[in-house]
Amino acid sequence: MNDLAVPPTDTTPSAESKQTNTDELPVSPVARRIQDALARYGATSLVCVQLDPLRNRANRWVELAEELSTLRDETVLLVDGDIRRRQLTAELGLQGEAGLAEYLTIGRPATSVVRPRVRPRLDLLPSGRGWLGDSKRLPASIAELLHRIGRHRLVLVMAGPPEDPVAKAFQQCCHATLLVVSSGITERSRAEGALHESVRAGARIAGSLVA
């Protein structure tokens, strides 16, 4: 992995002391490092794969997306790709809205489930209300989704753990993947295993982030 953020952590006190926790950092420098990596790769779609997503950081992801929209001088599309937990959708008060799940399961048009201007210069594709069935067509469906909604702007996807079928599909289709580990929770072996699994899934790893 490159130096986009910080290396994977383990849960020993000595290792934790060497890590940088993004909750203690302003969002701006984190966003700048991500933007630098996106520019380096020529990427317009980034999926953040949360190795331990039980820790709710939805408010920080919204702040990060807003900061990226300022840096890029464009409206960013934020996608709640964690259909099981739906933390981003709840953070923005859209729990009852159709979204990604309806697009993937019943074929709702992609543009019809994007909610514009949930914040200034920030659009949201909510998680939706349904659950996934057959996951065989996920990569093709996600690729088509990104093609339809991601033209000429950044698509920032917050996904679940790497073994989640939706997270896998987004990693295959997005230009870059950022692994998000939890300080004091994610063990080094878990982070290393996730890295190998993501690479096998076809992800282009841009770096890691402690949150």
Task: Describe the protein.
There is one protein chain. By secondary structure, the chain is α/β, with parallel strands linked by helices. It has one domain (13-210): P-loop containing nucleotide triphosphate hydrolases (Rossmann fold, 3-Layer(aba) Sandwich), CATH 3.40.50. It has eight helices and seven strands. Strands 3-4-2-5-1-6-7 form a seven-stranded mixed beta sheet, with helices on both faces. Helix 2 packs across helix 3 and helix 6 packs across helix 7 (165-173). Mean pLDDT is 85; it is low at 1-22.
Write out key terms for the chains shown.
211 residues, 7-stranded mixed beta sheet, Rossmann fold, single chain, alpha/beta
Secondary structure layout:
Layout: H1 13-17, H2 27-41, E1 45-50, H3 58-72, E2 76-81, H4 87-91, H5 100-106, E3 115-119, E4 122-125, H6 138-149, E5 155-159, H7 165-173, E6 176-181, H8 188-200, E7 205-210
Parallel strand pairs: 1-5, 1-6, 2-4, 2-5, 6-7
Antiparallel strand pairs: 3-4
Helix pairs in contact: 2-3, 6-7
Order of helices and strands: HHEHEHHEEHEHEHE
Residue stretches low in confidence (pLDDT < 50, at least 5 long) are: 1-22
Number of helices: 8
| Number of structural units classed as domains | 1
The fraction of residues in strands falls at 15-25%
Largest sheet: 7 strands, mixed
> Care to count the β-strands?
7
Distance between the termini: 17 Å
Strand order of the largest sheet: 3-4-2-5-1-6-7
CATH topology: Rossmann fold
The residue fraction in helices comes out at 25-40%
Sum up the overall morphology in one term.
Answer: globular
Radius of gyration (Å): 16 Å
Q: Which CATH-level-2 architecture?
A: 3-Layer(aba) Sandwich
